[in-house]
Write a structure and sequence with these properties.
The protein has about 270 residues and is an alpha/beta fold. The chain has two domains: about 220 residues, 3-Layer(aba) Sandwich (Rossmann fold), CATH 3.40.50; about 40 residues, no CATH class. It is built from nine helices and seven strands, in the order βαββααααβαβαβαβα. The chain has a seven-stranded parallel beta sheet, with helices on one face. Helix 8 links the parallel strand 6 and strand 7. Helix 5 runs parallel beside helix 6.
Amino acid sequence: MAKRVLIITYYWPPAGGPGVQRWLMFVKYFKRFGIEPIVYIPEGASYPLVDEKLSSEIDTEVEIISTPVKEPYKLAQLFSKKQTQQLSRGIISSSEPSFVEKLLLFIRGNFFIPDARVGWVPPSISYLSKYIAENTIDSIVTTGPPHSLHLIGMKLKEQLSIPWLADFRDPWTTIHYHKKLRLTKSAAKKHQQLEKKVLTTADQIVVTSPTTKTEFEAITNRPIEVITNGYDINSEEKQSLDDKFTLAHIGSLLTERNPLILWEVLAELVE
């Protein structure tokens, strides 16, 4: 009999960008491994990126459940739509931030811990507790960011003693923009406390890189596995290559990740 796994994710089609790809593809192939996924998503989410084409990747037989989510970023857009969308995606300008951006960063880091979707946690716990009581669920998976989803998994495990796997697509307090959130000492401490509690409560932890695994091993003794982001071989397309060589970076190339030495080397090769 297939194992019924409840997957709690914020990003789901029509969301675009890297956050949706990982679990959309996992769910697509789970049945081959004797897993029946039930996907829990937010209703009325405000996604910074939208890709309608990804909806075609959803298995029509997969059960999808949802509850409404209140999005603070929608209110923040009244002040600055562009800066709000960037902040929602974890993009913080490397230049001196404006007053509005400083204000948004302060509010985001100190009043919404661990993130702006924390308001979705209580209604999700209430809804899923009832759902699990009425339906057979063998284990649950939470994937973050947003890391507030791990608080849902942690509470369900505490209440129902159900096995819980926490998947981290990005680290928590060591993510590149965390130090720019203008945290007070008490807020910074709360972030660290929540991170440690999640990491020491989850039955299994999955990360996307050896670096994150090493960082988490300094916090918890729970088993940690690395499953890097991959690609769907069935959607592979032939690409026309340049005459000399083709260099591809798969992922976000943000300002702080600007590889100047690489550009210099490539310039020398081209010249």
